[in-house]
Amino acid sequence: MDYEPRPWHGLYFRAFDALRYDRFYGAFGGQTPIxxxxxxxxxxxxxxxxxxxxxFLQAMHELDRVFLExxxxxxxxxxxxx
Length: 82
Prior knowledge:
Blueprint: H1 9-19, H2 36-45, H3 50-79
Helix pairs in contact: 2-3
């Protein structure tokens, strides 16, 4: 399935780019999801409230889930020499 970004998606991609390093990194390279506190602070700072915040939170969790899956696959491939 092809995916064509829409102009309004930029809000989510810019937010994820700002938040993606706002997580705990384990001593051996593990990463935890972005915290609710970081996401809610970003939303508050950018006046994302009400139902919009619910959609924003869901989008950030989904983007982060995919990011962490890709990072795990990349790490596994590096560990396996490939």
